Amino acid sequence: MPQHQRFDNIGAFLEALDRAGELRTVSDPVSPVLEISRYTDAESKSPGGGKALLFRKVKGSEFPVATNLFGSDKRICMALGVDRIDDLAERLRALITMKPPKGLRDMLHLLPTALQVTSFFPRRFKGKTAPCQEVVYLGNEADLRRLPVLHCWPKDGGPFITLPLVFTKSLVNGIRNVGMYRMQVYDARTTGMHWHIHKDGSSNFSEYRKAGKRMPVAVAIGADPATIYAATAPMPRHADELLLAGFIRKHPVTLTPCLTVDLEVPAEAEFVIEGTVDPEEMRIEGPFGDHTGYYSLADLYPVFRVTAITHRRRPVYCATLVGKPPMEDCYLAKVTERLFLPLLQTVFPEIVNYWLPWEGVFHNIVVVAIEKAYPLHAQKIMSGLWGQGQMSFCKAIVVVDADVDPTDGRKVMAVLLKNLDVESDITVNRGILDALDHSSPTPHYGHKIGIDLTRRISGEPPRAKMRTSAGRTIGPEAVAAGFSAIDGVFRWRELALSEREGCRRVVLVSVEKPGNRSGKWYAERLLSEERLSEIDLFVLYDTSIELTDNSLVLWKLFNNTDPGRDLVIREGRAVVDACRKDASDGHLRQWPEELSFEE
Ligand SMILES: Cc1cc2nc3c(=O)[nH]c(=O)nc-3n(C[C@H](O)[C@H](O)[C@H](O)COP(=O)(O)O)c2cc1C
Fold first, then answer.
1. What is the pLDDT of residue 501?
2. What integer is the mean pLDDT of 133-157?
3. Are residues 70 and 174 located together in one domain of the fold?
4. CA 126 to the chain's CA centroid
5. pLDDT(4) > 90
6. CATH, residue 360
7. Which element (helix H / strand E) includes 18?
8. Which of 160, 203, 297, 374 stands the most exposed, by the fewest C-beta atoms within 10 Å?
9. Is a pLDDT exceeding 60 seen at residue 499?
10. Which domain holds residue 488?
C-alpha cells in the first residue's frame, strides 16, 4: 500500500478505515429516526472524535449508512492523503508563490508541478456506465423514501439529507458550483434546498429567478473524500470546487453527465438525485439541529423536485450529524482554516497565522496574529477580513501581535487580560452574518466586534492605565457583598491569571432574567455598584450555565451576543450580556432552543 492512499470512492475509504481500526460496524438493526444520530453523537463526542460508524442494517431501507467518516484528525488526514493538514496548505503555498522560470534549469524544475496542475481539472468518465448510474429510477419511480434519510434531533422539522453535494451552474457563464446545503425531505419527490442567501448556490438560483427559468440541480451523496470536503470549502464565486478536489487528490475527479438535467456529477458517487428548482416556489424549511448547537429557525427556502435517482449497485448512504461542537464538521472546517491561510496571505501578507476556535462555530470568532507595521494596522485587518468571502460572516475578530500564537487560547486570554482597554481597543461595526446566527435582532446582518490586542506603537494613543493589585482598595468580602446586593445575581466567578499584577479584572456572572430584566438593567446596576468598581469587565450568563466550564462559557459568549446591543461600555469598564435574549432586550424574533436528545 502506498504511504498515502488515494480514494476514488467511499467504498475504498471505508475499507482503508477498517484496516486502520478506524471503523466501527453496527450490525444490529437501527432506526434512521433519532437512533443513528444518538449513536453518532456519542461517538463523535468520545475522545479524539471516536471512530467512523457503519450501520449495516437500517430499518425501512435496503441501504447501509456511514457517519462520522471524517470526524477525527487521523481520519480527515487519511481522507485527504496527508500526514498533517498543514502539508496541504504548504503545497498550496508553493503553487501560488511559484516564480517565473529564469532559464532552462528552472523550467525543467517546474515541469513536474506544471504537469501536476493539469491533473487538477476534472475529466469525463470513459467507461460504458458510470458507477453512480448502475441503478436508475426515473420520474415517478424515483422515490426518496427508499433512502435511509436521517431524522437527527427530536425537534427537527423532519428527515433531511445531511451530506449532500449540490451541483448547479451559473446561468450567465455556465461555471459549475458545488456546495453542501442540507435538504429536508418533504415527500417521495420533493425536498427543501437550504442554500443560504450569501452562498454561491443561492447566487446561481438568483440568476434563474431573474430569468424566470427552472433551475437544474444535481445532488451527489458520497463521492471521493476530497470532493466531499471541497463542497464545504468557501471557494470564491465562479472558482470550481472540483479543481480544489483535484489539487488535494493530485488526480482529477471523474465526472459523468446526468440523465435528466444538463449537469455533471462525480461518476464515483454513491447516489445521485437529479431534479429542478422552480424559481418561484418557496416552502418552510426546518427547524433543524445545527452546528451552532441550537435548532436553526424555520424559514422559507426554495423547493427541489426530483426527476431521477441513480445509485451504485451496492451504495452506502453517507451522512453526518451536526450539533454542539466538537463534531465531525469541525474537522472539515479545520481543513478550510489551514488551507485558506496561504490564500488569505496573498491578500494580507502581514497575517502570520489565525485560528477559528470550535467554540465560535466557524463564523463567530477569529483570532488573527499580524506583523504590525503602522498605526491602526489591526483595524485594517478587521475591515479586510469583514470583506473577504465567507470570512465576512465573522462576528468577532481579535488581533494579536505576531509573537503571540493565536491558536493558543490561554495565551490569547492572557494578552486580553493584560492589554484590553475597552474604550480604545474595541471597534463595533455592522455587517452581514451567517444565516444561522441567532443573536442579532435581525436575520442575516447585525453587529460585529473587533478587538485590537496588539501592542501600541508610535503614532497610536496609549491605552488607559491599568490598575495594579497594589492600587486596589476593595477587599474580596466587599466585592462579594457588592454582588449580593444586586437582586437576581445567582453566582459569579472571577477569571484568574497566575500573575494578577496589572491585569484587567473579568468576572463571569450568572443572573436570573425574568421578562422585565434586560442585560442593560443588570449592566446599569453592576457598573453603579461602588463595591464592584474595581471589576473591569462583567460577562452575564443564564443561571443554567456552569461558569467553570471554559468551553461552554466561550461558546455561549460567541453564540449569544450581538455586540451592538449586548455590550455596554462606560468609563473604561464594560458589561457583555451572553444570556438568551427576549423582548425585554429588544429581541423580537424567536430565540432558538439548545440541542438535546431529551424531549
Ligand atoms: C455538514 C455541513 C452542512 C452544511 N449545511 C449548509 C446548509 O444547509 N446551507 C448552507 O448554506 N451552508 C451549509 N454548509 C456550509 C456550506 O457548505 C459552505 O459554506 C460552502 O462553502 C458553501 O459553498 P458555496 O460557497 O459554493 O455556496 C454546510 C456545511 C457542512 C460541513
1. 62
2. 98
3. no
4. 36
5. no
6. 3.40.1670.10
7. helix 10-19
8. 374
9. no
10. 476-585
